[in-house]
Amino acid sequence: SKPPVKVTVTGAAGQIGYALLFRIASGQMLGPDTPVTLSLLEITPALKAAEGTAMELDDCAFPLLSGIEITDNATAAFDGTSIALLVGARPRGPGMERGDLLAANGGIFKPQGQAINAGAADDIKVLVVGNPANTNSLIARSHAPDVPADRFSAMMRLDHNRALSQVAKKLGVSVADVTNMTVWGNHSATQYPDLFNARVGGRSVAEQVEQEWLESTLIPTVAKRGAAIIDARGASSAASAANAAIDHIHTWVHGTPEGDWTTAGVVSDGSYGVPEGLMSGFPVTAENGQWKIVQGLDINEFSRGRIDKSVAELVDERDAITGLGLI
Ligand code: NAX
C-alpha cells in the first residue's frame, strides 16, 4: 500500500477544522487508496481542544488514518508536509481597522510561509482558507521563496459552489448540469460570479436568465451568503467551507473533468489583465497536480467592470501589506 501523505491543518480546533478533519481522515480528500498522517497546528490555549478532536478521530477507527500529531510549533507542523490547509486566522474584532487586521494576519501567515519554505515536502500544495484568504495566501507565498509560486492557492471554491447551487435552483436543473462556472477576483463582497461563460445544457447561463436576476439577485446572494448563514445559524459557514476545501484539494490532486473547469485563487501570470503576482479567483483546470488558468474566454463589458473592481481591491490589499512590510 502507498506510504501515508502528511496533511497539515492549522486552526484545527476551530469550527471549520472540526468539519474538515474527519473527511480528510476518511479519504474523501485524497481518495480511498491514500493513507494520511494528520498534523494539527493550533495556538497554545487551543491545544487541549485539538487533543479532544484527535481523540474523536481515534474513535472513528479510520483505516486510512495512520497517525495524528498535535503541536503549537509551525516548523514541526509543516515539516515534511505535502498538503497544508491554512484555516486558522485572526478574525476582525470590534473597532479593528483593515491595517490592524492585515498586520495581525501577517503575524500568522509570515511565519507559516517561512516554516513551509524550511521543511515542507517537494510536492507541497498550500490552500489558504483563513480570511482575508487571497491576501493571506500572498503573504505566506512571499515568505516561501524556494517553493514554486503555483503551489500556493486561496479558497474561492465555496463561492464557486454557492454560485453553482443558486444557478441550478433558478433553472430547475441539478448542480451537476451547471458547468464552466468562474468566480473572479477576491473572496469578498466584490467577487464576480461569471454567468456568461457558465453553461447549462451547452448554452451560456446568462442567455437563460434575465440580466436583472443576474445583477440584483445572483451576484449579491452569492457575495452575501456568508452573512446570511451567520444570520440563520448564529455561526459562520463551517461544513460548507470544509467541503469546499476538500473539493479544492481533490480537484487539484485528481484533476478537472474534460471540458469543464473550476475556480481557485491562484497566482496571476497577467492573464485577463489581472496584475502578475496577485492571488485572484480564475477559471482553472487541474492536471498532474498543477493548476492552469483557462485562456481565451470572452469577457464582455459588464464582466470586465466587475472583474476590474474586485482586482482593484486585491491591488489595494497588496499595497497595504507592502506598506506594512509584510511582503
Ligand atoms: P474558528 O475561530 O472557529 O477557528 C479558528 C481557529 O484557528 C481557532 O481554533 C484558533 O485557535 C486557530 N488559530 C488562530 N491563530 C492560529 C495560528 N497562528 N496557528 C494555528 N491556529 C490558529 O474559525 P473558523 O470558523 O474555523 O474559520 C476559520 C477561518 O476561515 C476564518 O478566518 C474565516 O474567516 C475563514 N473562512 C473562509 C472562507 C473562504 O471561503 N475562504 C469561508 C469560511 C470562513 O469564513
From TrEMBL:
Positions bound to NAD(+): G11, A12, A13, G14, Q15, I16, G17, N105, Q112, V129, G130, N131
GO molecular function: L-malate dehydrogenase (NAD+) activity
Lactate/malate dehydrogenase C-terminal domain mapped to chain residues: 157-318
InterPro entries: L-lactate/malate_DH, Lactate/malate_DH_C, Lactate/malate_DH_N, Lactate_DH/Glyco_Ohase_4_C, Malate_DH_type2, NAD(P)-bd_dom_sf
UniProt catalytic activity: (S)-malate + NAD(+) = oxaloacetate + NADH + H(+)
Entry annotation: catalytic residues: H187 (proton acceptor)
Key word Oxidoreductase present: yes
Pfam families named in the record: Ldh_1_C, Ldh_1_N
GO biological process: malate metabolic process; tricarboxylic acid cycle
Lactate/malate dehydrogenase N-terminal domain mapped to chain residues: 5-145
Keywords in alphabetical order: NAD, Oxidoreductase, Tricarboxylic acid cycle
EC numbers on record: 1.1.1.37
UniProt-annotated binding residues for substrate: R92, R98, N131, R162
Family matches, as PANTHER family: MALATE DEHYDROGENASE
NCBIfam families per the UniProt record, alphabetical: MalateDH-SF1 (TIGR01759), PRK05442.1 (NF003916)
Assigned protein family: Belongs to the LDH/MDH superfamily. MDH type 2 family.
Protein's job: Catalyzes the reversible oxidation of malate to oxaloacetate.
The protein's name: Malate dehydrogenase
Gene: mdh
